[in-house]
């Protein structure tokens, strides 16, 4: 008897859910999904995006919504797990969302994308940096407001081979995930570009007392510049010992070196070193307004990817308005042709889905400070 | 391969070897006298470097000649580190002298962690820039691409320290007492040697050389943090074992072999495997000579 009661209750719950969701259809709103990790270990990466989307939507709704309709957010948790993300995506499709802000983690994003693609739903991630998501071309419905993992390597390689015109490059790394990952991207790009030659590709030992052997090797290889993937303690040792040896090889590195500690430790030897780092948008008026809105509402500074999610939400709402409809093809066209002012500056998207105007700049140490090179 | 490249790698290897040798001496001496592997030795080296940094920072405002500042900083570092070494022996090792050897070893590891964390709290975990106080020597200018001033000074200092050391152990009373204590502690006591003083002196000398190493290497590398003692200490320990722990010429030889292996391994094969060469070499040597290059095999009486 008990069994039947349970089955009945479950059935009743399911029916009532179906009824509820049935109710919310045709309610005359435009629905935007927000998916990501909202609970679990990685919740701190996902929650700020929800807050960002809410702030943007409140703002737009107060000004009359979009296409004359109010905007409604549908927030779904994927706990950053690919197997959960497919369910999350299916739910959002069932809710008939027009577009999705998310997901947060690259793995979960990839799992969900196939489902959105089949239903012609646009997906803009504020944080999924895995390069193939856009570059493979498998997901024409995918966009992101963050630079992919290999963007720094791309920028370093272009800067070395095109801006500075070097033909012989040495690529060094610290054997760590971050440094080696970047070095591998840089190596693959230099090889496929065919403009310059890699004369040396090596990993160095973190914390070693002396790098003179590997620097002698760099000198012997005739490299004009070193592209280094890693963090500032080794970079300052390398640069210091190199300059003391009288080597004037150009040193180009990454975000891990674009840190004031590097200048403090390397001192005068830091002069002239190039490093890539995220573009500075903190003085942008929209950015300041978004941060202030968050402060006012929640009494604290925003968390990870807040600005990226803010920009993503702004971009999709702008595209809906410019396209004049929620049609997939019209939205695609609007996203790829219109520039929109966001918290990350004025951005648009290329035909693979990566944001134009979002990413990294090259900085150079000049008189003891990092200066952005235009 | 051209010969300049070979010479560069050779000199680079010698510098590394000298650095290891200055630290390895302390390991091997302490082991020779009380059969203790003093794992906190690397920390004494690190404290030497920090003392020099603090002293030179304080003196920087006096407008003294950088060379003079360097010398004062080095002397203070040596005295300070030596007092740390002696205190460490009094607190952590002396009460355990009759205990099993393993207890003293654990005590040494504890001391190492204590000192590391003490410096971490007293200073920061960030890397600190170490001032360049040694001026470039003019006569090295033509060869500055092969050997720079700090490298030269490291090589010369190590050589001088080695010679003084050998003289001290061979020809002085305390040296004789040290050798006697190393051979047989009880017998040495019977003939009137104050073994406790000899052990204290060993720690004093060992800590002083480590401090000299700390100051020189920090000037060469230009940065220090609380963790430098651990990595340098491990490498120096390997060098001491390679040469035969307990043997002073062995520690020096082992350090140079290790430094040169790393330098040539990096230069001619790949720096990815720098540590692999060092440790593979250690294993090969220990297979054929289990007590190290110059170590004497221990005979057990049955």
Automatic annotation (TrEMBL), chain A:
InterPro entries on file: Leu-bd (IPR028081), Leu_Ile_Val-bd (IPR000709), Peripla_BP_I (IPR028082)
Start and end residues of each Leucine-binding protein domain: 29-366
Signal peptide boundaries: 1-18
Pfam families assigned to the protein according to its UniProt record, in alphabetical order: Peripla_BP_6
Entry keyword annotation includes NAD: no
Top-level taxon: Bacteria
GO BP field: amino acid transport
The keyword Signal appears for this protein: yes
Annotated PANTHER family: AMINO ACID BINDING PROTEIN (PTHR47151:SF2), LEU/ILE/VAL-BINDING ABC TRANSPORTER SUBUNIT (PTHR47151)
Name this protein carries in UniProt: Branched-chain amino acid ABC transporter substrate-binding protein
Biological source species: Candidatus Thalassospirochaeta sargassi
Automatic annotation (TrEMBL), chain B:
Cleaved signal peptide residues: none
Membrane topology: Multi-pass membrane protein
Domain of life of the native organism: Bacteria
Keyword terms of this UniProt record: Amino-acid transport, Cell inner membrane, Cell membrane, Membrane, Transmembrane, Transmembrane helix, Transport
Main location per the UniProt record: membrane
GO terms for biological process, alphabetical: D-alanine transmembrane transport; L-alanine transport; L-isoleucine import across plasma membrane
Bilayer-crossing regions: 19-37, 44-61, 67-87, 99-121, 149-169, 198-218, 276-295
Coiled-coil boundaries: none
One Gene Ontology term, aspect cellular component: plasma membrane
Molecular function via GO: L-isoleucine transmembrane transporter activity; L-leucine transmembrane transporter activity; L-phenylalanine transmembrane transporter activity; L-valine transmembrane transporter activity
Alphabetized InterPro entries for the sequence: ABC_transp_permease, BCAA_transport_permease
Location in the cell: Cell membrane
Family according to the record: Belongs to the binding-protein-dependent transport system permease family. LivHM subfamily.
Protein known as: Branched-chain amino acid ABC transporter permease LivH
Source organism per UniProt: Candidatus Thalassospirochaeta sargassi
